[in-house]
Amino acid sequence: MSGGDEYRDSPVRAYVITDGRARPSRNTIGIDTLLLAVDPDKPLPITTSRQHHELLRMCRRLLSLVEAAAYLELPVSVVGVLASDLVDAGRLVARPSIPEATGLDLNTLQEVLDGLRRLR
Amino acid sequence: MVFADSGERYLPDTVQQAVKILILGDFGVGKTTLIGSVSEIEPLRTEETMTQASVGVDDLDGLQHKTTTTVAMDFGRITISPRTALYLFGAPGQQRFWNLWAGLSKGAVGALVLIDTRRLEGSFDVLNQLELQTDMPFAVAVNHFPDTYAHSEQELREALDLLPHTPIVNCDARDRASSLDALITLVAYVSHLLVPQETTS
Q1: How far is Cα of residue B175 from the mean position of the Cα atoms in its chain?
Q2: What is the pLDDT of residue A100?
């Protein structure tokens, strides 16, 4: 691990990659949303950006948004916008995060608890 | 960590949901160490942009504008069951990062606040914020450093001014079992809070 909290700068500004958008088109995309490509080998429109291509390739198997962002070395917020585009285009399926309103249910908590105890 | 090659990068297709726990604390308190002890992937680093009013930090006299900051955040993952993946997000506890973890806390199980008893004052901010400004449940884990003086639980409770029901555990962030125990304490506490109380005593 590299130490510190250095900022990894890139010559391409985030707003260029997202086409000036700061927020995803759907508000159900969160940092722990799970992403999976639909038909990953089907070609994307030729106007599709390199970053969209890379994200789709990254999600050929199940991965969370935040992991995809880390591997692509892009800010989470940028990848959220890209993922949302691909979901809108029907190329990516998003398995949603735990909704804020309903919160966690006891069954899920018990599952987490059992899982942690098994690892112990 | 033997699972770091790209073959193990992905989650099993059966996983339907992700849950998350926040690991909060001062810089250097061992957040990433704890995450690394229990994570099935090498801890990853990502960046989140955060808009904040520039209060207290870069106090430019009279200029009340907002600034956008980039914060590095480390995280790890445990596939806890065929259906559920648990993500652990480490976030700095200082006041200027509250916006970051306010966003992260949505839908979270809760927070584990990691504390270094040699620098207790570094944790007052985060504990205050958790108690007064959020309804996110949390537990306190005292990370044991080699030269840490062993305080009694009561001493620590008083020094940190914890509410009586807030769990506090000792842990060694370098040790997998000990780190798991700290997480178990948090999740057990949160489950307990969710169970409808049958009697009020």
Answers
A1: 17
A2: 63
Q: Which residue has the higher pLDDT, A60 or B105?
A: A60
Q: Do the beta carbons of residue B25 and residue B31 sit within 8 Å?
A: yes
Chain A touched by B195 (CB under 8 Å): yes
Whether B153 has a pLDDT exceeding 80, the answer reads yes
Q: Is A117 left (phi over 0), alpha (psi -120 to 50) or beta?
A: alpha
Strands B110-115 and B17-25: parallel
Residues 54-113 on A with a CB inside 8 Å of B are: 61-64, 66-67, 69-71, 75-77, 95-100, 103-104, 106, 108-113
Strand pairing partners for A37?
A92
Integer Cα distance of A54 and A72 in angstroms:
8
Q: How many CA atoms lie within 13 A of B185 on its CB side?
A: 21
CA A39 to chain centre: 17
Domain ranges in chain A are: 14-119
Q: How confident is the model at residue B47 (pLDDT cuts 50, 70, 90)?
A: confident
Cβ contacts of B130 within 8 Å, gap of 6 or more: B24, B111, B113, B136, B138
Contacts of A32 in chain B (CB under 8 A): 18-20, 87, 107
Bridge partners (DSSP) listed for residue B85: B18, B79
CA distance B54 to B130: 21
The Cα A83–Cα B29 span in angstroms is: 34
What is the biggest distance separating any 2 CA atoms in chain A, rounded to whole angstroms? 50
Q: Give φ, ψ of A94 to 5 degrees.
A: -110, 125
Q: Locate tokens 């914890």: which residue?
A: B162
- The topology under which CATH files domain B6-194 is Rossmann fold (3.40.50)
pLDDT band, very low/low/confident/very high, at B51 (cuts 50, 70, 90) = low
